[in-house]
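User: Hey, quick favor. My workstation is busy. Could you predict this chain's structure for me?
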Amino acid sequence: MEHILVRSGKREDIPSILNLIKELAAYEKEPNAVVISEEALMNDAFGTDSAFEFIVAEHDGIVVGTAIFYYCYSTWRGKYIYLEDLIVTKQHRRLGIGGKLFEALIKRTRAEGLRQFGWQVLDWNNLAIDFYKKYNATLDESWVNGRLYFNP
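Assistant: No problem, here it is.
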């Protein structure tokens, strides 16, 4: 594959990010679950109280992948980067783009002196599980995820 540029996300990337999020939701069998808007993403990424950051992978000036992340805190290990989503468009998968994005966040985690980099993966997503195993990742099956959902 030709050159892939991995860079920090910009405001003008938000429409592409929302499209990638919708593509991921469809892949994860939840096509109607995305309720976030471009405006909310813009505010949550670039507003005064930003909630997340993202990097993108570009091919020929077109965003073909993203890693959406934020900082969390572990009482055992301290501040860490949490990868919310790693998304590559279907037509650009299996070309090493996900690895470039993932490795960029590993590099950032190390550069910031953090002791942990975390994420979740669906137990049926064998392609993703195999991808993470290539990095010698610890995939813990003993934790049960909990969430409460609210309508504003």
